[in-house]
Amino acid sequence: MAELWKSLPSWVRNIVVPVLVLVLAWNLVWFVVGVVSSLLGLLIKGLVVVGLAAAVVVLVKKAAKS
């Protein structure tokens, strides 16, 4: 691997490789942000569904008593 690295021209080692690393890191960061935000969205939707279900249960129990 070191031989391959040394065989690359200096402009590739100093410009192209760091740009590729930055692009890959940027894509990885946005992938992680996307995964976290989608999980938070699912969590919020789940909490809304549980809250609505609890409200329906309370309303049905009140209606059954009266």
User: Quick one: how many beta strands?
Assistant: 0
Biggest sheet features: none
Percent helix:
over 70%
Radius of gyration: 27 Å
Low-confidence stretches: none
Number of domains: 1
Continuous helix count: 2
Per DSSP, what share of the residues sits in E-state strands of 2 or more residues? under 5%
Head-to-tail CA distance between termini: 79 Å
Transmembrane segments: 12-33, 39-60
Pfam families: DUF5326
Keywords: Membrane, Transmembrane, Transmembrane helix
InterPro entries: Uncharacterised_SCO3924
Explain this structure.
The protein has 66 residues and is mainly alpha-helical. The model has no long low-confidence stretch (mean pLDDT 94). The chain has helices spanning 2-7, 10-65. The N and C termini lie far apart (79 Å). The protein has one domain (2-65). The chain contains 2 helices and no strands. The longest helix is centred in the middle third of the chain and has 56 residues, at 10-65.
Write the layout of secondary structure elements.
Elements: H1 2-7, H2 10-65
